């Protein structure tokens, strides 16, 4: 069944040739199909969880509205409407968790590009060329803000203003001492 469908899609793709409008239509319908499939499977997962917990708890758990979640895939960003559960904080979707892990890896890639002092526009272009996903400045700004907070908590707490000397290969270097309160880490830094 899958082989026949893939063969039909391949034939349609070659029939269209270089017409990009038709190709973009195919990609968009593919994204919609993936989105619908994921949304239905998440709803089924939540329904199964509710049925399972009815047997073991006296407090009823039921759906209460929807929450939108955005996940990034190679086909682009997909926005899903996930049902909210009332009276339960323990439920964690196994379907969304692997995509959220992918999202963390995606944020790590942006953090690495930021650490090399690249501009926001350069990072947006690199991400677009690698994955085909268009991201906004707000995502990069949020990650940049978190990186700055980590940097400040680690490196900007100075014990004293005294400068000590460190002799390396009979040469004189000025050294500053740094201490991180949270981790208890002690560092020496060359001036």
From TrEMBL:
InterPro entries tied to this protein: Transposase_mutator
Keywords (A to Z) from UniProt: DNA recombination, DNA-binding, Transposable element, Transposition
A molecular function (GO) term: transposase activity
Taxonomic superkingdom: Bacteria
Biological processes annotated in GO: DNA transposition
UniProt similarity note: Belongs to the transposase mutator family.
Function (record text): Required for the transposition of the insertion element.
Name the record gives this protein: Mutator family transposase
Annotated organism of origin: Mycoplasmopsis verecunda
């Amino acid at each position: 069944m899958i082989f026949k469908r893939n063969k039909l899609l391949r034939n349609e793709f070659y029939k269209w040739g270089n017409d990009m409008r038709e190709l973009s239509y195919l990609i968009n319908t593919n994204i919609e199909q993936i989105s619908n499939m994921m949304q239905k499977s998440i709803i089924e997962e939540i329904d199964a969880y509710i049925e399972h917990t009815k047997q073991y708890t006296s407090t009823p758990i039921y759906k209460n509205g929807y929450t939108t979640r955005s996940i990034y895939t190679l086909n682009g960003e997909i926005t899903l409407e996930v049902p909210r559960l009332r009276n339960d904080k323990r439920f964690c979707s196994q379907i969304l968790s692997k995509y959220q892990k992918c999202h963390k890896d995606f944020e790590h890639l942006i953090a690495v590009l930021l650490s090399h002092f690249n501009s926001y526009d350069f990072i947006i272009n690199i991400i677009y060329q690698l994955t085909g996903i268009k991201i906004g400045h707000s995502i990069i700004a949020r990650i940049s803000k978190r990186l700055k907070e980590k940097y400040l908590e680690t490196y900007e707490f100075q014990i004293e203003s005294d400068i000590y000397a460190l002799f390396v290969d009979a040469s004189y270097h000025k050294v500053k001492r740094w201490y991180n309160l949270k981790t208890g880490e002690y560092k020496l830094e060359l001036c």
